[in-house]
Amino acid sequence: MTAGPSTTSISPRAYDAWRSTRLGRITEAVEQRLLLGMLGPLAGAHVLDVGCGDAVLLQAMAANGAIVTGVDPDRNMLATARARVAGARPLATVIEGRAQQLPFHDASFDVVCTVTVLCFFANPANALQEMARVLRPGGCLVLGELGRRNLWAAIRRLKAWAGPATWSAARFRSAAELRTLLDSAGLEVNDVRGAVFFPPAGALAQLMEGVDPWLGRLTTIGAAFIAIRGNRFERSQ
C-alpha cells in the first residue's frame, strides 16, 4: 500500500476507506498488477506472503492458482484476512507470525513476497534472511517497498513531523538500497521496476494509470513504489 494508513497502526476499516477513494483504488490496482506480473505463473506454487495484512494480495494470488500462506502479527488484521480467503481454492492459510522468526521449515515455499513491511524495520537483514531461508532453491522473492525520493514520501515525512508519528518509524529506500539488501540475503536480483509515478491526486492518477507500467519498466526515479525480484541460488550438487 503506497499511501494508506501505516502498517504499524492499521485497522481493516482504514484499508477499506483508502480503497474506497479513487486515488486508493487506482494506486492499489497499479501496484497489484506490477506485483502479480513479477511473481510470474502461480498455478500450483506454494506462496508465502509475509505481512499479508487483510489478504487482498493473498486473495489475488489464490485466484491465480497459488497455494497461499499469509503471515501477520496483527490479530485484528488476521481475522479480516481469514474471512477474505475463506474457501479459497486450491488452498489458503493465514497464521500469526513475525517476519524475523517465520514459523516454517527451511525451503518450504516456491515464492515469497512481502509488501510495505521492511520499511518499518530499522535493520531488515534478519527478516530477509528468514525469507530466504524458507525459500526453495530456484524460488523467487518479490519485495515491494515505498520509494525514497518522490512526492508521496515527502508528504509522509511532513505528516511524521507535524502530527501523530504514523510514519516516523518508517525508512524509505531507493532501488539500489533494496538491491543491496537482497544481495546480502544471498538472492540474485533479476528484475527491478517502479510504479506510482503520479502525485497523490485521484484525477492525475486516473490520467496516468495507463502509462505508469511503461514508466516503471524504464526507471524507478520518482516512483512512489518499487518492486524487486530475486532468486535463491541453486545449491551445487
Please provide a written account of the structure.
- There is one protein chain.
- This protein has a single domain, classed as 3-Layer(aba) Sandwich (Rossmann fold).
- Helix 2 (22-39) packs parallel to helix 8.
- A seven-stranded mixed β-sheet has the order 3-2-1-4-5-7-6, sandwiched between helices.
- It contains nine helices and seven strands; from the N terminus they run ααβαβαββαβααβααβ.
- Mean pLDDT is 89; it is low at 3-8.
- With 237 residues, the chain is of the alpha/beta class.
Give a brief outline of the structure.
The protein has 237 residues and is of the alpha/beta class.
List keywords for this structure.
disordered N terminus; globular; 9 helices; Rossmann fold; alpha/beta; seven-stranded mixed β-sheet; 237 residues
Topology readout:
Elements: H1 12-19, H2 22-39, E1 46-50, H3 56-63, E2 67-72, H4 75-85, E3 91-96, E4 109-115, H5 125-133, E5 135-146, H6 151-162, H7 175-184, E6 187-195, H8 202-208, H9 212-218, E7 225-232
Parallel strand pairs: 1-2, 1-4, 2-3, 4-5
Antiparallel strand pairs: 5-7, 6-7
Helix pairs in contact: 2-8
